[in-house]
Amino acid sequence: MQNIFAKSFLTKSNAKAVDLAHRRKINFNIGKYNAVVPKGKEQFTDLERVREMAKNRKWEAIEHLDTYLTQFEEQLTKRGGQVLWAEDAGQALDFIGKICSEKNCRSIVKSKSMVTEEIHLNNYLESIGIESVETDLGEYIQQMDGEAPYHIVTPAMHKSKEDVAKLFNEKLGTDINLTPEELTLVARKNLRDKYVQAEIGVTGANFIIPDIGGIALTENEGNARLSASWPKTHIVIVGIEKVIPSIADLGLFWPLLSTFGTGQQVTVYNSIISGPRQADELDGPEEMIVILLDNGRTDLLANAKAREALYCIRCGACLNACPVYKNIGGHSYDTTYSGPIGSVITPHLRGMHDYKHLSYASSLCGNCTEVCPVRINLHELLLENRKESVEAGESNFAENFAWKMWKQASMSRTLMNQGNAAIKNWVINKMFTGWSNQRAPLEFPKKTFNQLWKEDHKK
């Protein structure tokens, strides 16, 4: 019997797969990325060598993760920063709640961060009476509409400019005919007031830099810089896998992230933050607190075959390349991380029993692996997840029986040749409707391979 998560996925994906308006918006927006990413890649004289170097550096970071994280804590602490280690989402939220209580915090400004979505930070802050404002424009739109981010890089990718204008009209009372530029200025004005009011700023981190005890942020709007520097307290929430070995590696990873994510040679704002305001500095936060989040990552690290998924730098390229994602969209997955990378890591982070179905939400075309900047073998990891789910006893009797029969038939030419095409067509298309419900009917050839072979050789 399917669990509630698998049922929800099937229900939502079935609805989106036939929603042509949704598909047009997604293909239009992804098409814009597809048009500029090849241009961005031209900055690399030997792209495959660069990708291999990046994979090797992430291998180094993940294989020695304990050493690098300890080094990061030591270096950041020297400059007055604080590091907290959160085993799960609940502990991370408890840390944040305690900090907010100590600071008498009433409002928070927050830059775009998938990890804060992972722990449902906004819901938690609302439950304890603290206003949390998303300052990334896409996240601001999604928060206003009561929706989770749709895409790792572009949170409101599924919305057209008309959708956004209508939303602003309903929520903010603006003219429904405002242009995208005018809508952006409205958001900018509203958010500037929030920066002044907030006691705490929250950001994620694109990279953890252990040798200097710093974090690296990359963005196109400048909202992360404001969230990190304007409030008196800066909280960073980051997954432990975001480590790179050295600050020298930023020259490799920043261009890769921007090129594969948005087609840019480098994003507009790139910041390295290595502690709170120092005695000889005029601006910046008085406190910097970094929360290092595990939340299932060490379980994935312990899996020798699957730990490669921790190399991900969250560029979103695999989502843009995936034919499944482009048809069913980000919200169908019901997870923080969607698309191929989400289908790989979610069963490990949130449980194979509840999320094994995501590993089957793939055509296994390999396009995700082809476009990954750090060359994660995503389609092979999806197959590995399927294998692990079966070994863990997550397959039911019907599934086991069907595969056993298929195996027996595949290994016997006599069994394969049993029955005529009409009977086979009826069995597949009428009895086993799981195939034909979503696809064109299968049509078996009227003659078997053996019959065609004998006829050809008689000639």
What is the topology, as strand order, of the major beta sheet? 1-9-7-4-2-3
Poorly predicted parts: none
CATH class group of the largest domain: Alpha Beta
CATH topology of the largest domain: Rossmann fold
Distance between the termini: 53 Å
Give the proportion of residues in helices. Answer: 40-55%
User: What's the total count of β strands?
Assistant: 9
Describe this structure in a few short sentences.
This protein has helices at 4-17, 20-41, 47-63, 65-78, 89-102, 114-118, 121-127, 137-144, 161-172, 180-197, 223-229, 250-262, 297-301, 317-321, 325-328, 339-350, 352-355, 367-371, 378-391, 397-410, 413-416, 421-431, 433-436, 449-458, and strands spanning 82-86, 107-110, 131-134, 200-203, 207-209, 214-219, 233-239, 269-273, 287-293. The protein has 459 residues and is an alpha/beta fold. The model has no long low-confidence stretch (mean pLDDT 94).
Walk me through what this model shows.
The chain is globular, with a radius of gyration of 25 Å. The mean pLDDT is 94. A hairpin with a 4-residue loop joins β5 and β6. The protein has three domains: 101 residues, Alpha-helical ferredoxin (Fumarate Reductase Iron-sulfur Protein, Chain B, domain 2, Orthogonal Bundle); 253 residues, NagB/RpiA/CoA transferase-like (Rossmann fold, 3-Layer(aba) Sandwich); 50 residues, no CATH class. The protein is built from 24 helices and nine strands. It has 459 residues and is of the alpha/beta class. The strands form two sheets. A six-stranded parallel β-sheet has the order 1-9-7-4-2-3, sandwiched between helices. The chain starts with a helix and ends with a helix.
